[in-house]
Model the fold of this input.
Amino acid sequence: MIADEKRLDSLVEQFFRESFSTDNPVITEAIKRLLAAGGKRLRPRITLLAAATCGGQPLDHLQLGAYMELIHVATLIHDDVVDRADMRRGVNATAIDYGNRISVLAGDYLFAWIFKNVTANYPPPVPHILSATLADICDGEVLQLRALGKLDVGTNAYLEVARKKTASLFVASAQCGAIMGGGGPEAIDALRVFGDCYGIAFQMNDDLLDVTADQQTLGKPVGNDLAERKMTIPLILALRDGDAAFRELVARCYDGGDDGAIPAILEGIARHGGLSGTRREIAQFVGRAKTALARLGASGAKAELERLADALIDDEEIPRS
Amino acid sequence: MIADEKRLDSLVEQFFRESFSTDNPVITEAIKRLLAAGGKRLRPRITLLAAATCGGQPLDHLQLGAYMELIHVATLIHDDVVDRADMRRGVNATAIDYGNRISVLAGDYLFAWIFKNVTANYPPPVPHILSATLADICDGEVLQLRALGKLDVGTNAYLEVARKKTASLFVASAQCGAIMGGGGPEAIDALRVFGDCYGIAFQMNDDLLDVTADQQTLGKPVGNDLAERKMTIPLILALRDGDAAFRELVARCYDGGDDGAIPAILEGIARHGGLSGTRREIAQFVGRAKTALARLGASGAKAELERLADALIDDEEIPRS
Done:
């Protein structure tokens, strides 16, 4: 199966290289550049594996898998508009703004292009699932924006954001793969739950890496989430179990704007159990994801999905989006 | 019929005030503010009238009409991100960027929310038409961006942009209204052609107003399109029929960045027949729009659609988006 899985991956890559094209050459190029920049293609992999666990032929669903990756890519394109604030300082504003203009339009076009193709080629409820998923992603991102810097965000509010912003697309990837692979209601539901738990564990692992990995592995500065005043799960757990001095330290940074406190916050997160607590949470959601799969018959594809989930608790082999 | 039409308008407004709501309160408020700021609701009006010409009950299609307006609103929200470049200078960057973040997400959410509802409640091909329309709008806007400042843009390239960027949503409004109103293939096609010709005339009229109306009527500076280096139809026709001195003047502004030339360009557009030529073009497309309607039986709704088209050549009563 590992050989097969590798073959599927390379077919997804081949699809993007050779078959992906839109009617607008500027947009096609912008998207192809982003695709070529890398990514583990976790969402298409989950779609193809979900189809396979339901008895489908993964090769029949390359296009569907590609749409899942492209929804992810479109949200990344719009995130770049959103996150460019810091880079803008000291950079030619016109160039940046020209970038913003094309970025907004390219993301919009990509969403529309996906829906145009999905409504033409896929039966209900696939088009509805994909559009509802995009609504959830945006809803989750707005909730996260509104929660920036709010130290009273607890695990429930965190889970709502993670579920909408991140897990929803893994849910859609697994669920649509199962539907198009010919799965029955029980299998579709099992894969839906898998996607939800996997996606939450994935987001928690992403949060964890932000405060533990080195800059080179991460491709962005360590503590970047803290600099953006995000309420990540390691921070939430450390605040819950930490003392008043730690809360004051975080408040000085999150309310008071003191970025100099970030190294001490990183240290405090570790000291107050934020890292170990996050690892426990991840292990729990990975466990639930695998339990959901237990409702499916044994297959190589199911074993691969289990392996993907386990990789979220294995520091040596962490899938990156 | 005029009384009826007024009643339909107020029902569309009532729908937005009382029935429009998304799952995200921040986004709902942002959209409601924009809706309350005005607009002639031309797209929903065309949807309801198209349904009526096909024998449908306009009241049954308020929601569909609302989706057409909301697609327009979502593109406006993203245009604000795109067009804020100038305002950004000298303004608190963080406030502007926070606005950009929410604007991008609110527009994305609105697109997704519309597709989520349309895929749940409307039969094929309505969801496909709407997503293909959004793809066309973005494609047209990218084409327009790429053509900024290019003096060799001719009427064909202009028409492609106007058709995609502006007319496509009028096409979708008319076509989907006809489909849901129970129209046959002939009526649906007639209304599709109406939407296309109406939409092109509408864009040309918009271009004309930019160089003729006063700032108060327009709600933005006169010559704003010129300041943005857009290739509008009055300018294209004046360049076609003008002399070398006029072309040099425009080049000094469009290539050379000399905004001081704008008053002279405005004067040159008038002198070289840009205004009269545009009025002739508008009259032609309005004529074609009305010819398309001739394939439908007589009805009050059809008369209203004719009146809407005629209003584009009547300076006294110009519909504004």
